Amino acid sequence: MRLYFAPGACSLSPHIVSRELGLPVELKKVSTKDKTMEGGGDFRQINPKGYVPALELDDGAVLTEGPAIVQYLADRKPDAGLAPKAGSIERYRLQEWLNFITSELHKQFSPLFRPTTPEDYKKIAKDNLANRFEWLDKQLAGKDYLMGKGFTVADAYLYTVLRWTKPMQMDLSKFPNVVTYMERVGARPNVKDALKAEGLQ
Ligand SMILES: N[C@@H](CCC(=O)N[C@@H](CS)C(=O)NCC(=O)O)C(=O)O
Predict the structure, then answer these.
(1) What is the rounded average pLDDT for all residues in the chain?
(2) Which of 14, 105, 21 is nearest to 52 (CA)?
(3) For the CA of 67, the nearest atom of ligand 1
(4) How far is it, in rounded angstroms, from Cα 18 to Cα 10?
(5) Which atom of ligand 1 is nearest to the CA of 69?
């Protein structure tokens, strides 16, 4: 399998998951700005939507959309427990988290990275995010990970997205459970390895 990624982007989530599962995945670096790929080529030939992550399977099929990719990876090694069994209520809880992260967090961050976004709107987006962090902080009270004791693919995604608070100079200190959570996930050896492989440490 080959994972198309950009350092520190949302593709870090499936990258972490592949390492946590011990699945061999070749990394292919993409420029999200001009859609070129390391070694040459136009990334839009791989994913016409032009964004990472994209996962190329061994039969050449390409899977896109982070929440789908991480579940696909987890289902390759179900015993690892990175996603509950398909059809179980716990699996829907995981999907509830993935959808929250993608729509309520990830896509609120996206305009903050665009130089064309008006400053007034950036402030609104940051305030919306702070409201979500307040709720998230309560959910994390007394928990090691989003689903309880065990690390799941939702944690890989949440960690990836919350890392963006740093470049956006968003203060998380008002959310102590979120801060502790970030330290806990960041201390996982596979997470450290993924950051290192993306040149982020
Ligand atoms: N809906 C997609 C969104 C992916 C996305 O926003 N990717 C960003 C990096 S975090 C990107 O590649 N942006 C470049 C672009 O949209 O042109 C998913 O969840 O996978």
Answers:
(1) 98
(2) 14
(3) 19
(4) 14
(5) 20
Residue whose entry in the numeric block shows the structure tokens 């967090």: 105
Model confidence pLDDT, tens digit, residues 128-151: 999 999 999 999 999 999 999 999
Paired tokens of 110? 């996206």
- Token pair recorded at residue 87: 């059809």
How much is the pLDDT for 136?
98
Ligand 1 pocket, mutate which of 46, 51, 103, 113 (most atoms under 8 A from CB): 51
pTM of this prediction exceeds 0.85: yes
Say if residues 54 and 46 touch (Cβ distance below 8 Å). Answer: yes
Q: How far, in Å, are 35, 46, 75, 108, 158 from residue 100 at the CA level?
A: 28, 27, 21, 11, 10
Compute the distance between CA of residue 151 and CA of residue 173 in angstroms, rounded to an integer: 23
Ligand 1 atom nearest residue 66's Cα: 20
CA proximity to 105, closest of 163, 146, 38: 163
Ligand 1 touching residue 52 (CB < 6 A): yes
CA distance 117 to 26: 34
Distance between CA 67 and CA 161 in Å, rounded?
Answer: 13
Q: Is the pLDDT of residue 201 over 90?
A: no
**CB 14 less than 6 A from any atom of ligand 1:** no
**pLDDT tens sequence across 43-60:** 999 999 999 999 999 999
Type and span of the H or E element at 186: helix 176-186
Which residue has a Cα nearest atom 11 of ligand 1? 51
